[in-house]
Every structure is written in structure tokens, then in C-alpha cells.
């Protein structure tokens, strides 16, 4: 049986046998707790009110950050609203984003608990996700591209004009 090294330099076995051959993989991120509790909604009254009265806004903002800008806030929010109006159960859609966010940031939980939390208390789940992303340094109102632009401006990007010589000389 041959072992090859992946682009990461870790040896990987391409065999699917049930022998005791070891497959090496990079170490997994340690699982961490959420930065705030599920019922800490009232620590941010503004977001709490928006989430209670118009959860599509909070969902859209969370989805844009979790998708890393590949889906716009408005698009995600509109799809959330459409699913809610047609099917009546938007929690089935939003729980997938909770699971995706949990995997990205190695947060404690499972797919079953994600679904259960969203089905039982959608506003609390969305508010917790929103607070988690804020704690991780995202300005939720700016969206993904606004956050990327803001962070890139702070990194050694000095706008200076090149020097120009005056007149022609020979």
C-alpha cells in the first residue's frame, strides 16, 4: 500500500481497507463555548428588538458573514422571508447556518441541537449568532465586504502620491 503526501505535507492513505493502517490528518481546532448564552438576548436591546420584529434582517446579516460575502444580506433575508411565508417554518433554513457557523469557529454543539434550538426559539438563536459574530470582531451592519475593506485599510495601506520631478532636464 502506498502513501502519498497531500499538498499540506501530511501523509494520507488512499486505501479504504479495514486494516489497522493509520491515516494522518492535521489536528482539529479545540471546541470552544459560545461567547454568550442563548437567553442573553437583552444584553443588546437593539438587536433583540430587530430580531423579534423582523428576524429576516438579523438572519441576513449573519448569513452574509457566515457565507463570507458570497450571499448578500438582502438576498439571504429575502429568501428567509419567502421560506417563512411559503412553508411557515424558516427555522429549517436558519439551523443550517448555525451549523455552518459552528464548524467555522469550532463552537460547541451538534446538528441536532442546532435544529432543536432554532425550532424552539428562533429569535434567541439568531440573536446569539449575531452576538457571537460581533464578539469575534465583525461590525454586523457593514457586512462581509465592509468588514474586509475596513480591516485592509488598517494594514499598512498608506495612500501617498509618487514623487514627480519638475521640468525636463538632459
UniProtKB/TrEMBL annotation:
Known InterPro entries for this protein? PLAC_motif_containing
Pfam families reported in the protein's UniProt record: PLAC8
Alphabetically list the UniProt keywords.
Membrane, Transmembrane, Transmembrane helix
Residue spans crossing the bilayer: 77-96
In its UniProt entry, what is this protein called?
Uncharacterized protein
Amino acid at each position: 500500500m502506498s502513501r502519498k503526501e497531500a499538498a499540506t505535507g501530511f501523509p494520507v492513505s488512499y486505501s479504504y481497507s479495514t486494516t489497522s493502517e493509520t491515516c494522518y490528518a492535521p489536528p482539529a481546532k479545540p471546541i470552544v463555548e459560545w461567547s454568550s448564552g442563548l437567553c442573553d438576548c437583552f444584553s443588546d436591546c437593539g438587536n433583540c428588538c430587530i430580531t423579534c420584529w423582523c428576524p429576516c434582517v438579523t438572519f441576513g446579516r449573519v448569513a452574509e458573514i457566515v457565507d463570507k460575502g458570497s450571499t448578500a444580506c438582502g438576498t439571504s433575508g429575502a429568501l428567509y422571508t419567502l421560506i417563512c411565508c411559503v412553508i411557515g417554518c424558516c427555522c429549517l433554513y436558519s439551523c443550517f447556518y448555525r451549523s455552518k457557523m459552528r464548524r467555522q469557529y469550532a463552537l460547541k454543539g451538534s446538528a441536532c441541537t442546532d435544529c432543536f434550538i432554532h425550532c424552539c426559539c428562533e429569535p434567541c438563536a439568531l440573536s446569539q449568532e449575531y452576538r457571537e459574530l460581533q464578539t469575534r470582531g465583525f461590525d454586523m451592519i457593514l457586512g462581509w465586504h465592509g468588514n474586509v475593506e475596513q480591516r485592509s485599510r488598517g494594514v499598512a495601506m498608506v495612500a501617498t502620491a509618487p514623487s514627480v520631478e519638475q521640468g525636463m532636464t538632459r
